[in-house]
Amino acid sequence: MGFPSERPRRTRQSDAWRRMVRETRLAPDMFIYPLFVVPGRAVRHAVESMPGICQLSVDEAVKEAQAVAAAGVPAVLLFAAPTQKDAKASAATDPKGLAAQAITAIKAACPELLVWADVCLCGATDHGHCGHVTPEGVIDNDPSIQTLAEVALNYAHAGADAVAPSDMMDGRVQAIRTLLDAKGYAATPIVSYAAKYASSFYGPFREAAESAPAFGDRRSYQMDPANVREALREVLLDIEEGADLIMVKPAGPYLDVIRQVRDAVRVPVVAYQVSGEFSLIKAAAARGWIDERAAVMETLTGIHRAGADLIISYFAPQVAQWLRA
Ligand code: PBG
Which ligand 1 atom minimizes the distance to the CA of 314? Predict the structure, then answer.
């Protein structure tokens, strides 16, 4: 065979043909939308580096959650930026803390919307690192995973439908699973940020979540962008420890990682299209250099095609609307 009898263009010649032979389809059901909660009332504070994204007080986060649910997005991922920051990350383990309040309020207003709670110490520590820090400035793994487990328990108790540890400490999935099971939350799933890279694409998020490290960087716990075998190791360890879903993050620059992980595991694979990926598209679109809608759909289709079952994206409600229109 071959040309001239082989002509792949035959099934591309009209929209109807292209729709029929399409191999990858996005659906609102696969999206999760991040929300950033801050103290106060009636606060909608625009995040400058992320056009269209706001830091929200709990009352506003509830309204946003209702709008997201109405758009057909099944889940939100909650981040809290409390004002109280200390060495122990007290705001994150406090049952009356900002994150706990937000979880309870959103679940009360939209019971059908899933609330995934990001579990980390960076938003609640004075040094902004994802674990505890020794006097020498070293990130101290084993005490950190005990605190992370307490944070996860606090959020499960507040009503979270899933806890999502994003800290990258070793053994934290096991520590969280053990404590949740012991305290009556055996049914709460763990979404593990298993292959999370030390990425330059988190910059805009750190403004939104007020979680930039006060010294150093995160390379002693987040992964080297050059590694993929190590990602598989991280993912398999987290599944052994009890992760129900695993995540690759960022998404766009790591499509090969997503594919290899998808082929290696049986649990759902989540990819996080992070703040920098969002802001790049927004910035280029604002200058008229790129067609925003087409670029958004292309990046998300690529992430899904690479093997992500679920996608966390700041475009989620917009995409759900486009997909329904
Ligand atoms: C906190 C956390 C980060 C992101 C999600 N959880 C930032 C970081 O690790 O520095 C990034 C999300 C984004 O950029 O959209 N550990």
Answer: 15
